[in-house]
User: Fold this.
Amino acid sequence: MASGSSPTAIDLFCGAGGLSEGLRQAGISPVAGVDFDKHAVATYRHNHPNVPVVEGDVAEVTGEQLMELAGTREIDLIAGGPSCQGFSTHGKRMQDDPRNFLFKHFVRLVEEIQPKMFLMENVRGMLTYGKGAFRRQIEAAFDEIGYRTDFAQVLAADYGVPQLRHRILFIGTRVDEIELSFPPRTHGADDEPELKPYVTVEEAIGDLPLMGDDYKQNERPYACAPQNPYQVYCRTGAPKEVTLHIGRPLSAQAQSLADHIGQGEGLRAVPVEALPARFQKMRTISSGALRRDCTTLYHRLHPAKPSYTITCNYKNVASGPFLHPWEDRAISHREAARFMSFPDHYQFVGASFPRQIGNAVPPLLGRAIGEEIVKMLSQAGKQRSRAA
Assistant:
């Protein structure tokens, strides 16, 4: 990092650009990206118009190609989240899922480009799979190319994201003067007065208009002025109206269930006699009573708590905790983006919005680790200057 200049980053598996947005907010300049999803790449280019992006298979991308795109051979950071969906706790775990080994191309490109640091974000399930064998494989791969590594489990809500999204972060460096560290938590539960309180569902989306019976209007006036710092953050630089705030009515079955589900409740709140046949085989407790926990199917979000993990299925209330807190519908694209901490000026283009949003790194999580990386790079630079 040259004196007075911004650190540079290449975003592998950049998707719609959530991590790049967070790094940009932290003062790091994305200078190139890679992703195979044409819709996500279109969104990335729309929101980061000055960053060249390779649309294609990372296995066919070379370090030389990325450095030429970036216009520099001095890269401070390679960042990204190679898919390890076979280790996700949301769905079927498959150790041999070929997506689990995309990290090898991440390692290859780190070796070819030789950045000062790397940041790799992933699902926390791969941390414990096979008693940590996959984690050790990743650490060994980076060690072999000369990078010290460390890892941490993080909760996005701990950094101001209104979402209980658990992830694992790997960071590494080849620079002796860099002391690896992770950002301290800034937010916490009510019994942690030294921290800011978690950002809740109501704080995240309370200024967005209700839909009533009008599900298809793409742009709507805001319901009110920003009511809290999170809404101010989301609306800074935003259009005058809310975009991508569309929905659809629930199916007849989903509506019949939603009628019984209150805020913070899910399928287990529905009386047995009102359940479809396939849901009546629900586990009971020792007294024979129906369990009311252990599921987030058809769960209605609680206004006073953060949302659960936003997945690619957030438009399907049967798949998880995606019922709107006040209306009988799934959350909208803009509401999902709010729960991910995307500012309202961030526009999603093309198609497959749920995949683009659900697969993204929450920008405020990216910002938190980005600020820590800037601090590490700066401290190392000062040590080298003193030594010289």
Summary: The first strand starts at residue 8 and ends at 12. The domain at 8-189+360-387 is CATH 3.40.50.150 (Rossmann fold).
